[in-house]
Automatic annotation (TrEMBL), chain A:
Disulfide bonds join C74-C83, C114-C123. GO terms for biological process: negative regulation of reductive pentose-phosphate cycle. Pfam families: CP12 (PF02672). This is CP12 domain-containing protein. It comes from the Eukaryota.
Automatic annotation (TrEMBL), chain B:
One of its GO terms (cellular component) is chloroplast. It is an enzyme of class 2 (transferase). The keyword Coiled coil does not apply. Its EC number is 2.7.1.19. It comes from Escallonia herrerae. PROSITE patterns: PHOSPHORIBULOKINASE. One of its GO terms (molecular function) is ATP binding. This is Phosphoribulokinase. It catalyses: D-ribulose 5-phosphate + ATP = D-ribulose 1,5-bisphosphate + ADP + H(+). InterPro entries: P-loop_NTPase, PRK, PRK/URK. It is found in: Plastid, Chloroplast. Pathway: Carbohydrate biosynthesis; Calvin cycle.
């Protein structure tokens, strides 16, 4: 029991904050800092950054950890409340990871970044 | 429409009370502070002087119930799209907020009313499906307040951390959707609903969908997916499934009957079960209202590819209710199939010819856009728009009458 509780003592909010922030992703793209090299950048069509398929790293870790601890919790009595609650946590985290993936698929990191930083050099659009 | 449209959001005029849980044996987090309004709104309807009552600003409340991972979010995206405008999380708020807001509609997730956080549930050995993990008193108070035009500070359940975050302000929208595991569980909450929907996913399909969703996730395997579904099943059967008897519309998703022994879960048979006698909700029908009909649209006029499309329609009984059931088995491969089917359905509450097809095409990338799940979700969205328009019209007429009197 003590070990199970120990396993669950992650610091998920920090992880989530770090991985949800759009900044690290936009910085990863070297092209971002050289907008003049992108011909497609002009006009209405902003630069296209391919969507990232995986769930944020932090959530993926949580899912994997939760499966491990569910398997442990169920090794004794598979009908116990402890076991059932552990598998419920797996479901909750898997759903959260799936939602995070969908969100990422929909969103363009540059668009996201520019929502909050309209004045940034990267976010300017030019006529002609 | 000279009726006053200013809605008085009597938000924080009440005392912010620290809810002292009376069910301490459940391990409710004592540290958690929940603010909510508990003021009574004085109704001035029909009296002399100000008649700017709740008449045309009153919020319509829709309930959507389904298990986790059964397409609630997709349905919500289709529904808000029917009303026009995209639904987005509250601007500048908690990035992990579960709320979606569009011009007309606010969607709140009932997980926000968890009384036990993830650690609490683990300690007590209860799942999120268990009513003991949810605060129905607060759910009722807040949904009622919003329905009465009062803004509330709703808690936020953070699905990443498993903790309850500081609350967010929810203002009364035109349409409030409460989606989650228990919108029809508590009678008080259920009685607040103007319309309710239950997504009923058969075990086979649920398994197939969760494999699709989770197999790529690290740590998951067929065994873990199966174990999770099986472990949650007793609570699901006890607390979630029985809610379907109260739903005005049930969308049932089953494996196809067109392919013998199919268990891939790719081709689906979907039933739309519509309760009869619900005010402002006229069930959709095929060809002749009230008759029993089996229809294969593929033939001389329309060519379909394997395994084809099959429709069925007819009256039936569901629990003790009289219902109409529309069923579609198979999937659309081409645009003309969809428009052909749409043109043969009646009472679908479209505003122009081809609106269902247009909505389905607009969101062709959503799951289910080529089968009965997408078709029936879109139709239910249109029926809700119709219900909303009829309800507001009747309320406006009612208040006009009251003003005259």
């Amino acid at each position: 029991m003590a070990t199970v509780a120990g396993v669950s003592l992650y610091t998920p909010r920090l992880v989530a904050k770090a991985s949800d922030s759009p900044k690290p992703q936009t910085i990863k793209s070297p092209r971002l800092n050289h907008p003049w090299k992108m011909s497609t950048r002009f006009g209405s069509g902003r630069m296209y950054v391919p969507p990232v398929a995986a769930a944020p790293e932090g959530l993926s870790n949580l899912v994997a950890e939760s499966i491990k601890s569910a398997e442990e919790a169920c090794s004794g009595d598979p009908a116990s409340g402890e076991c059932v609650a552990a598998w419920d946590e797996v479901e909750e985290l898997s759903a959260a990871a799936s939602h995070a993936r969908d969100k990422k698929k929909d969103s363009d990191p540059l668009e996201e970044f520019c929502k909050d930083n309209m004045d940034n050099e990267e976010c300017r659009t030019y006529e002609d | 429409m000279a009726v006053c449209t200013v809605y008085t959001v009597q938000s924080l005029n009440s005392t912010c009370s620290i809810s002292t849980p009376n069910k301490t044996h459940l391990g409710f987090q004592q540290k958690q502070v929940v603010f909510y309004t508990s003021s009574k709104r004085s109704s001035k309807r029909g009296g002399g002087g100000i008649t700017c009552a709740a008449a045309d600003s009153q919020t319509i409340v829709i309930g959507l119930a389904a298990d986790s991972g059964c397409g609630k979010s997709t349905f919500m995206r289709r529904l808000t799209s029917v009303f026009g405008g995209a639904a987005e999380p509250p601007k500048g708020g908690n990035p992990d907020s579960n709320t979606l807001i569009s011009d007309t509609t606010t969607v709140i997730c009932l997980d926000d009313y968890h009384s036990l956080d993830r650690t609490g549930r683990k300690e007590k050995g209860v799942t999120a499906l268990d009513p003991r993990a949810n605060n129905f008193d607060l759910m009722y108070e807040q949904v009622k307040a919003i329905k009465d035009g009062i803004a509330v500070q709703k808690p936020i359940y953070n699905h990443v951390s498993g903790l309850l975050d500081p609350p967010e302000l929810i203002k009364p929208p035109k349409i409030l959707v409460i989606e989650g595991l228990h919108p029809m569980y508590d009678k008080r909450v259920r009685d607040l609903l103007d319309f309710s929907i239950y997504l009923d996913i058969s075990n086979e399909v649920k398994f197939a969908w969760k494999i699709q969703r989770d197999m790529a996730e690290r740590g998951h395997s067929l065994e873990s997916i199966k174990a999770s579904i099986e472990a949650r099943k007793p609570d699901f059967d006890a607390y979630i499934d029985p809610q379907k008897q109260y739903a005005d519309a049930v969308i049932e998703v089953l494996p196809t009957q067109l392919i013998p022994d199919d268990n891939e879960g790719k081709v689906l048979r979907v039933k739309l079960i519509m309760k009869e006698g619900v005010k402002f909700f006229n069930p959709v029908y095929l060809f002749d209202e009230g008759s029993t009909i089996s229809w294969i649209p593929c033939g001389r006029k329309l060519t379909c590819s394997y395994p084809g499309i099959k429709f069925a329609y007819g009256p039936d009984a569901y629990f003790s209710n009289e219902v109409s059931v529309l069923e579609m088995d198979g999937q659309f491969d081409r645009l003309d199939e969809l428009i052909y089917v749409e043109s043969h359905l009646s009472n679908i509450s479209t505003k122009f010819y081809g609106e269902v097809t247009q909505q389905m095409l607009k969101h062709a990338d959503f799951p289910g856009s080529n089968n009965g799940t997408g078709l029936f979700q879109t139709i239910v969205g249109l029926k809700i728009r119709d219900l909303y328009e009829q309800l507001t019209a009747s309320r406006a007429a009612g208040s006009l009458q009251a003003t005259k009197a």
